[in-house]
Automatic annotation (TrEMBL):
Transmembrane segments: none annotated. The keyword Oxidoreductase applies. InterPro entries: Alpha-hydoxy_acid_DH_FMN (IPR012133), FMN-dep_DH (IPR000262), FMN_HAD (IPR037396). Keywords: Flavoprotein, FMN, Oxidoreductase. This is Alpha-hydroxy-acid oxidizing protein. It comes from the Bacteria. Pfam families: FMN_dh. One of its GO terms (molecular function) is FMN binding. Residues 1-374 form the FMN hydroxy acid dehydrogenase domain.
Length: 378
């Protein structure tokens, strides 16, 4: 019933808000500061338009696209998100099964609530490991070796968290990782019995990648010691694809390309870090112009529809990632809710392609001035 009620990302969010404890919903939904950064990016996406074209045969449309030489069945994947099992028990593996079905990358967070080895197995290899540098880096490079041994071929270094941003909605509820329950949380959970009973039956979500001996992680530990030397060391250590995520400055993007990084993910961490950061969407055209037409450029942050994803690709992205809305869908309707929202996003993308005279997304990414581009006034 809940899955059938999801006709848009906002439907999923509305249902999730009703069912999740306030602490969990605000952890997933919240942004830095007064959340003006999230509003700024949303406004940029809303203001952008696509160019409608008519009388073109768009009866055969393909939603697949190539990423690092591998054909995906959709032009969007799953952004790395920490502690997904808070949204619904088994959420990490729901996402992994979705990734396997559509052969899209599933970003596996350093602070996932399921071990990285299990996720890539269930995802049938369609998984990228997202890495945080923390402390002195010893534990970080242990995780790199572990990801390599688990079969990951793409590593995503997230660089926009030198310190964890202040998210007042999260802080007001006393949210912590590892998950801790005090009197305030107990009352919150008691008022949301459906979620609480399910969580109780399946056990408290943990940061699963640190339950093995020799692996520790403190979410509040400073990550400020990462430097370009750290990146060079990582590049020397990692022979697979290396993506750097959280890039919002063109000069930095050009330097990353020169340093041998294989792809850049334009992102503001869902506006959860620096409230005053520019809109990631607004930065895409300049990034593309500086990096050239063939350099892999990915995008996440604030996407709420398949049409949004097409806008991002028209602005210069080769591939996009959805994040928190997928958690809302699982909170609203479990795996059926996730499948329903994914179908909605796919249909939105396909219809927008038809309306803009586009059959092949690869043609658009090869020529960003072709059909489906942003209007000239931008």
């Amino acid at each position: 019933m809940s899955a059938d009620a999801i006709h848009s990302a906002e439907d999923a969010r509305r249902l999730a808000r009703r069912r999740l404890p306030w602490m969990v919903f605000d952890y997933i939904d919240g942004a830095a500061g007064q959340e003006t950064g999230a509003a700024r990016n949303r406004a940029a996406l809303d203001q952008a338009t696509l160019r409608p074209r008519i009388l073109r045969d768009v009866s055969a449309r393909a939603l697949g696209i190539s990423v690092f030489g591998k054909l995906t069945k959709r032009p969007f994947g799953i952004a790395p998100m920490g502690m997904c099992n808070l949204s619904a028990p088994g959420a990490d593996l729901m996402l992994a099964r979705l990734a396997a079905r559509y052969q899209v990358p599933h970003g596996v967070s350093t602070v996932a609530s399921t071990p990285m080895e299990k996720i890539i197995e269930v995802a049938q290899g369609n998984a990228w490991f997202q890495l945080y540098f923390s402390g002195d880096g010893v534990g970080t490079f242990k995780l790199v070796d572990r990801a390599k041994n688990a079969g990951y071929d793409t590593l995503v270094l997230t660089v926009d968290v030198p310190e964890v941003g202040r998210r007042p909605r999260e802080l007001r509820h006393g949210f912590k990782m590892p998950f801790k329950i005090g009197p305030r949380q107990f009352i919150d959970f008691a008022l949301h019995p459906r979620w609480s009973v399910s969580a109780l039956l399946h056990g408290k979500p943990q940061m699963a990648n640190f339950e093995m001996d020799g692996f520790e992680f403190d979410r509040t530990e400073s990550r400020a010691r990462a430097t370009w030397d750290t990146l060079n060391r990582l590049r020397d250590t990692w022979s697979g694809n290396l993506v750097v995520k959280g890039v919002l400055d063109v000069e930095d993007a050009v330097a990353l390309k020169a340093a041998g990084v294989d792809g850049i993910q334009v992102s503001s961490h869902g506006a959860r870090q620096l409230e005053s950061a520019p809109s990631p969407f607004a930065m895409l055209p300049a990034m593309r112009a500086a990096l050239g037409p063939d350099y892999p450029l990915f995008f996440d942050s604030g996407l709420r529809s398949g049409e949004d994803a097409l806008k991002a690709m028209a602005a210069g992205a080769d591939f996009t990632f959805f994040g928190r809305i997928l958690q809302f869908a699982m909170a609203a309707g479990g795996e059926a809710g996730l499948a329903q929202l994914w179908d909605v996003l796919s249909e939105e993308m396909s219809i927008a392609m038809a309306q803009t005279g586009l059959c092949d997304l690869g043609a658009m990414t090869a020529d960003h001035s072709g059909a489906g581009t942003l209007p000239a006034e931008r």
